[in-house]
Amino acid sequence: KNLGGLLGVSATDIIKNLMKKGKIANINQEIDYDTAAQIAEDFDILVEMEEEKDLMEEAFGEIVDNEKDLVERPPVVVVMGHVDHGKTSLLDAIRSTHVTAKEAGGITQHIGAYSVSISGKKITFLDTPGHEAFTAMRMRGAQVTDIAILVVAADDGVMPQTIEAINHAKAANVQIIVAMNKIDKVGANPDRVKQELSEHGLIVEEWGGDTICVPVSAIKKEGLDTLLEMVLLVSEMGDLKANPNRKARGTIIEAQLDKGRGPVATVLVQSGTLQVGDPIVAGASYGRIRAMVDDKGRIVKKAGPSTPVEILGLSEVPTAGDMFYVANNDKQARQVAERIKAQGRVQMMGQTPQKVSLDDLFTQIQEGKMKELNIVIKADVQGSVEAVRQSLERLSNEEVRIRTIHGGVGTITESDVMLASASGAIIIGFNVRPEASVKSIAEKEQVDMRLYRVIYSAIEDIQAAMKGMLDPEY
Ligand code: GDP
Q1: Atom of ligand 1 at shortest range from CA of 217
Q2: What is the mean pLDDT of residues 10-27?
Q3: pLDDT, tens digit, 9 for 90 and up, residues 377-419
Q4: CA distance 328 to 322
Q5: Which has the closest alpha carbon to 283: 62, 112, 55, 113?
Q6: Which residue in 96, 129, 100 sits closest to 112, CA to CA?
Q7: Which residues approach ligand 1 with their CB closer than 6 A?
Q8: What is the complex's ipTM, to 2 decimals?
Q9: Where are the beta strands (DSSP E) in 154-201?
Q10: Residue 197 phi/psi, 5° resolution?
Q11: What does the pLDDT read at residue 354?
């Protein structure tokens, strides 16, 4: 019916047209873009796909705030590190020791994020530890985190996932603070950990670097105050601000369908103040906020910048990483959501990183769109990772710098693809064979993944791509 209205033909004619194509449809049937375009063509009308980001931009525009309207906001922190180094224990210890007396009455609710108070200031923690969750959000365009706490067990040191976490945080331009955990353990060896960290570009302050490293014990609840003070210090240097006096916008942190309450989403307000009764849109989901619950289980009416709250009232379950906006009215919220749904794709927040491919590298360089080619290198042995890294980075010239954002031993993983996707990078695999599932994610995310057996071939390809002379088939 809607398509008919747009094309100026009756719904019956469209249904007939569909039947000719062997498709049975009723008047309220939703059809996808390609089908709609085909039908339109049959009626001699050419259809163009609207740019995805225009929808949100058109409706809500970019934020322009006057300096005088900005006030300090709490930092948003994520905890990362190798498995079993104590991320969950640390998050739990901080939560249980730093909820203020006034707040303690409530029952702790796990809503995906929580805030704590220290020295009269707040810090917001994302409750899902690990760089995968962090990068998955970033892949959708969400930039929510200000600071990453890198948990390294003092008795185990820097491990593969520690390195991944470092590189994921660096690629996102997020400040890293090291929490050297398990210092209570007999085998703890802080100096060795500092040495290993320095091998990955994190030089601790006492060694003349600028990485803050705080010894802690999540189990004994030691060092937590110092760690939080350091988070505040780094946050103050970052001058984090937002305007609380505007319509709210932010990111969906978590969402699920609750049997009794319907779609429930935890949102992190990033700008403005969210209020009960606000009409909001998040991807293809929309609605008027019926109720808000904070991380202590209390019903709240308002939520300002960096505050996580659970909201009720959405029409359907949005996706984590989607941006949400408060609309001017219910109608606008519904219209935007419907248009996003009609596109058959979920709206991504802001601008997702541009996809990069060796095939059009030259064009992008020529157009001045690319000053840096980010690469992720995976190889069977450490020696090859280094060799590939050095030979490729050496190809950098005045027009484009080649930068390795992550290099590691082992096969190409989903996490590598996510990092590449979120950072606009390509993946070079050397003597490794990724699983089919990883290949399909790479395809879906349009991440250019190239596999080589000889270093020279990789160099040759990149060199050719930089000159626009790459052979299309490889
Ligand atoms: P995650 O996988 O990084 O989330 O690690 P967990 O928080 O699940 O912790 C892994 C294991 O290390 C658990 O058995 C914890 O009890 C233990 N652990 C965590 N922090 C400490 C600590 O500060 N000291 C000691 N001795 N053990 C700890």
Answers
A1: 23
A2: 87
A3: 999 998 999 999 999 999 998 888 999 999 999 999 999 999 9
A4: 19
A5: 55
A6: 129
A7: 81, 83-89, 129, 181-182, 184-185, 217-219
A8: 0.99
A9: 175-181
A10: -65, -40
A11: 67
pLDDT tens sequence across 62-121? 778 888 999 999 999 999 999 999 999 999 999 988 775 555 555 667 889 999 999 899
Residue 112: what are its φ and ψ, rounded to 5°?
A: 110, -15
Look at residue 311 and tell me whether its pLDDT is greater than 70. Answer: yes
472 burial level (CB within 10 Å; 0-12, 13-18, 19+): exposed
Q: Which residue has the tokens 């190809």?
A: 395
Report which protein residue has its CA nearest ligand 1's atom 6: 86
Rounded to a whole number, what is the distance in angstroms from the first to the last CA of the chain? 46
Q: Which of 181, 159, 196, 200 is nearest to 79 (CA)?
A: 181
CA 116 to ligand 1 center in whole angstroms: 21
Q: How far is the CA of 217 from the centre of ligand 1 (A)?
A: 9
Per-range mean pLDDT, top range of 45-54, 132-141, 164-173, 343-352 = 164-173
C-alpha 242 chain-centroid distance? 20
Length of the chain: 474
- Least confident range of 274-288, 350-364, 452-466: 350-364
Any bridge partners for residue 308, and if so which?
268
pLDDT in tens, 200-237: 999 999 999 999 999 999 999 999 999 999 999 999 99
CA of 219 to the centre of ligand 1 (A): 7
Nearest to 134 by CA among 76, 189, 182, 177: 76
Strands (E) across 120-247 are located at: 121-126, 147-153, 175-181, 212-215, 241-242
Mutual angle of helices 160-171 and 414-423, in 10-degree steps: 20
Ligand 1 mean position to 182 CA, how many Å?
7
Find the 134 Cα to ligand 1 centroid distance in Å: 21
**pLDDT number for residue 36:** 87
Torsion, Cα of 178, 184, 189, 194 (10° steps): 10
